[in-house]
Fold this protein.
Amino acid sequence: MTIQSTTGWSTIRGHRVQLEFFRNVLASQRLGQAYLLVGPGGIGKRTFARQLAACLLCPGTDDDVLESCGECSSCKQIAADSHPDLLEVGLPEGKNLIPIRLLAGDRESRGRAGLCYDLSLSPMESQRRVAILDAADHIEQIACSSLLKTLEEPPPRAIIILVADSEAGILDTIRSRCQLVRFSPLEDDDMIELLLASETVPNRQEAERVARLAEGSLSTAALMQDPKLQALRDAVYKNLATMPVDPLAMIDEVVPAWEDLGGDGNTKRVNATWIARFAIEFYRAVLRFLAGADTTSTIPDAQRLCQSMTVGDTAAIDRIAALLDRCLEAEREPMSNVMLPLALEAFFADLAKQSRIGTD
Ligand SMILES: [Zn+2]
């Protein structure tokens, strides 16, 4: 059996340990009925779960081998989202909880519809049924008992794969009935290849930059392509290119760009850390120049600032290193306990003060 290079595991980057785990499970015929895949958002857990399901449903490969042929009708139906034995539930568009309706039916059909019911039916085409429950850490409270019942007495020939960003949002009773498989953020090299393959970045240099900032999350990388976030980055860069930093100009230009990103309280906090991250990227570029490691920077504003500096100037190195420290601190403590705009103002004032030291 030849495996097409465009299908199957070859399309999935990273997660080699987890792949090896499931390979061993199948090879030793110890396939369980419930798995919980946990790891940071945007790293490909759901894609992994779908490929796992494809392998478990494909009749074209041996049962003890974790592969899908990519050519049989089962594989083609999975690719077309129309396999009758692959059941998938996730967050409805614009919602932050999975309603009981999707797991156990609405009031009129309670217990006779939804994922838990569908999973109890006999397979239609394959030897088994596979359910993927995405956002398993965001299930409506009342729906948890239906899921728990399914996990306590899994229907024969049923496999359920829960996918979650965090264990914290999952009831102990549910978690304890699943085999936990932990996922890690993507390595930079894998991110770079994925970004280039998806054609969301213009070139390798930009892919490397995005991979570094996105910290192993493809959804963060996608967010970075958001024009509003890019406008925030440009506002941060532009203001840092002037030494000393002008805190009032930063309030005038950076705060509105941050507000423009919108979002609820938590998203606003997360977005505020981008200001620190962009500043970190900026000052690191300047430090590389001062250390003689880079003669030109990929950040034009950093390049502009470097033109007023001399390679090896220890006073300048100290000043930039102190600014970088302050930004790293702001990134670690995402301005949680104070009104955000006030926290940002304090951060900008610190940068201004720090950037004046030794220049007066
Ligand atoms: Zn197949």
